[in-house]
Amino acid sequence: MDFKLDKCHELQRQLFRSFAENEIKPIAKDMDENEAYDLDLLAKLQKYGFFGIPFPRELGGGGSDNLGYALAMEECSRIDASTGITMSVHTSLCCQAIYHNGTPEQKEKYLRPLIDGTKMGCFGLTEPGAGSDVAGAQTVATQNEDGSWTINGSKIFTTNSGFADTCTLFAITDRNVKASKGMTCFIVDLKEMPGITISDNIERMGIRAASNCIVTYDNVRVPADRVLGKVGGGFKIAMQSLDSGRIGIAAQAVGIAQGALDESIKYAKARKQFGRPIVAFQNSQFKLAECQTLIEAARLLVWKAAIAEDKGEPFSALAAQAKLFASDVAVQVTRYAVQLMGGYGYCREYPVERMYRDAKITEIYEGTSEVMKMVIAGSMKL
Amino acid sequence: MKICVCIKQVPDTAEVKLDPKTNTLIRDGVPSIINHDDRSAIETAIQLKEQYGAHVSVVCMGPPQADIALREALAMGCDEAYLLSAREFGGSDTYATATIIATALRKIGFDLVITGRQAIDGDTAQVGPQIAEQLHLPQVTYAEELKYEGGDTLIVRRQFEDQSHMIKIKMPCLITALTELNEPRYMSVKGITSAYQQEVNVWGFDALKDDLNPAWIGLKGSPTNVFQSFGKQLRQAGKVMTGLSDEQAVDAIMAKLIERHII
Fold this sequence. Notes:
The complex is a heterodimer. By secondary structure, chain A is of the alpha+beta class. Chain A has helices at residues 7-34, 39-47, 66-79, 81-101, 104-115, 179-182, 234-270, 282-310, 316-345, 352-360, 369-379, and strands at residues 121-124, 140-143, 149-159, 166-172, 183-189, 196-198, 212-222, 227-228, 272-273, 276-277. Chain A has 11 helices and 10 strands. In chain A, the strands form 3 sheets. A 4-stranded mixed sheet of chain A has the order 1-4-5-8. Chain A has a 4-stranded antiparallel sheet with strand order 2-3-7-6, with helices on one face. Chain A is globular and about 80 Å long. The two termini of chain A are 29 Å apart. In chain B, a hairpin with a 4-residue loop joins strand 9 (139-148) and strand 10 (153-159). Chain B has a single domain, classed as Rossmann fold.
């Protein structure tokens, strides 16, 4: 057992950190204020391979693994959680689904451009009336005589949909069986298909720079070869993708917490009250020590889940544990960071205000903390 | 075109402190980085490779830990890497260092050698020019712009304090790069994972011994020795006099010079 990163992962972390510090940090505040992701930054992330990290180089990917991807998620989210979710939805929910379930033709046609940074991906599962209750989905696909499918329905909170090219979309294809058997996944060209409407960005509390819209499908006709995996196999693909995605979200939560801790330490060293820097007070030190410990524990859970996935071991419960714990840590640490910085922490001038708002979503998306507990309890054979 | 880039791994001086007793750098816990000018040297080589086709070798003399600097250079796009590392090389001054590197370069082969102008730890700016001298190469130092003119010709803009020189130079030659030359790229993820599947050639004394006299290298082979280092005494801030006419200013300066018995 060795808890240290090897040299290759260390060097990856060095890349992710310097990129985040130099390229993301200067514009993170503006992106949040503008509620729009900077497309030049997106292009740079694509250029340096941030959207294909865990995939084989032969497919245009980075040739790294889920641990390397978790490091990228942490380092980018340490500066800007919106960048984290943009990467995560593309990588885990869209690309992983195609990578694990796609035919060689689908991988060549859809996965390669997603991985090599030419195209962006998103994931359409959640609906206005079907959140945690995935099986309550109303979006329907019916097969036509020529084998093609016609899709009708509406998906909400589709991250990246404002600029994405490719969507892994889930629709009910058989109403006569349970949704876990009657749901199918389709690979949809968001930009080329008539009948698709994408709303404006949904106004949110945090991760405001991320693109997140309602996507409506009105008689959208997709060819038969766009079915990902088996007809009726969609629910399984969705659950698989979310299991994997949770490791990324947990890493994002660790990054948000670490970013807030770093900012608050910097501030506490400079800020003087009662004649000394506030970091010299034992109350500050004890709270910062607690935060450091929580973050380290959360990070180890993330790495454990990522390494299990890399080794092909079961990781669903590990990922849920990592997300449950890390998201709670993110909310606690950012809340404390704002508190330590007092009135200044509450001001938009300092990034902890944004980080506090951003942290909350990690307890909600890709499975709420309550759903995480269901997954963990389920694995305990209670 | 065969390009050799020489780099040095240095402590990140933004985070370095001096030991108050010995006045030497405290290197413990300080991250090591590729020297800034050297990164620009790497970027120049990779740009030439992308535009005209070239094979880029990167060379670093240093302890085994310098391996990571070479991996970083590979991850940016260099083709092969050489680490010159041996106990015998330790304690070398700039001249002995240049002797070792020049010997390695002769063995690797090159049309163009690019080094950084100077390292942020030693700040001598000597190793590049000394390599050129040892290899009997023409050189342009302080390069802030470089263009390949085709054939064996480069046009280099050399920076001076108050002017620039445009110099045409024929390869084989040596260029020392300034950070102004370009903005070095990041490593790519693909580059990093490939870099760790590649071998870094580690050359000890034995690899070079046929062409390297032990008397020329290490502490013994170094014509210069640092016998003491010390911090600079801070000078008092100068006195600023404003609002004087030209004549009054001359009088004021003359008065000060006389007061100090300088004239």
